[in-house]
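INFO  loader      accepted 1 record
INFO  loader      residues=74
INFO  predictor   begin
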Amino acid sequence: MLRMYSPEDFEGKTESLYRLVLAAARRSAQLAKPEARPLVHVRSKKPTVVALEEILEGKVAVSEARTDEEDYFE
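INFO  predictor   done
INFO  writer      dumping tokens
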């Protein structure tokens, strides 16, 4: 049986839920390619679930992108 994930499961993995969604989407796109291999033991064939499991287990890090928003407005 697949486990249902909640946003609380990912606390401390990223600074915002938005970054988590972007990272999971990017990783799931990579996993959808035939040559890609998952970094964790898979319990699902769905690349989105595998991507979330990789982030949760710390195999894929969510990098905090630096923005120049402060410098953009003068």
